[in-house]
Amino acid sequence: MIFQRMRDDISWVLHNDPAARSVLEVVLCYSGLHAVWFYRLNHWLWNHGARLCARWLSQVARVFTGIEIHPAAHVGRRLFIDHGMGVVIGETTVLGDEVTIYQDVTLGGTGKEEGKRHPTIGNRVVIGAGSRVLGNIEIGHNSRIGAGSVVLRSVPDDSTVVGVPGHIIFRQGKRVVITDPKQITDPLSEALSVVATQVKELQKRVQQLEGSVAEGIDQDSEKSLQAVIEIDYQI
Prior knowledge:
The protein is of the alpha/beta class. The protein is built from 6 helices and 16 strands. It folds into 2 domains: 2-177, UDP N-Acetylglucosamine Acyltransferase, domain 1; 182-233, no CATH class. The chain has helices at 2-16, 23-29, 31-47, 51-65, 187-210, 219-229; strands spanning 68-69, 74-75, 80-81, 88-89, 94-95, 100-101, 106-108, 120-121, 126-127, 132-134, 138-139, 144-145, 150-151, 159-162, 167-171, 174-175.
């Protein structure tokens, strides 16, 4: 069973990476494969009560591979970590089958909450380099997370997500048209919008009280203020 799983892992690397030329090269040179094998041992130890040993070995694996997989995470079959340096997979993460993860990906939490606090990744999901998938969210089957994206909300099946914060641009092969740009939640832009709106209201009150435009407010500043108000409408 163990050796069959190892052969399956090797064949999956050969299937996915055109740079892999032989079984020997994959076994000797692919740190992502080494990290997965380390994880399998550590997960077994974790489930059989040797949790300190499992955690320590996971740190040893991180030193040698640059990849940290918590031994309590649940990883499906044929996980392919390409290059892999900087990959972090949190304690309550659940990965489906045939998931592909590129370098510098974090599957993490968003705070100190207890219980399930890391993402659940469906089958055949591709997570691009530098992406952050955070919190107890679900990424649907056959979805793709673009490089550098920050995903904070669940994603349905067969979707493509890009951006910071991440938003869906393709779903089931069709382009998603965002008719309301506010669907993209950006806390900083929303805060600026609130402040700018309040300044606008104060300006109007001053005009009403003094009967004239407040000193220092001209057309240029009016345009700048309007630009700030509209920040969160930009995609």
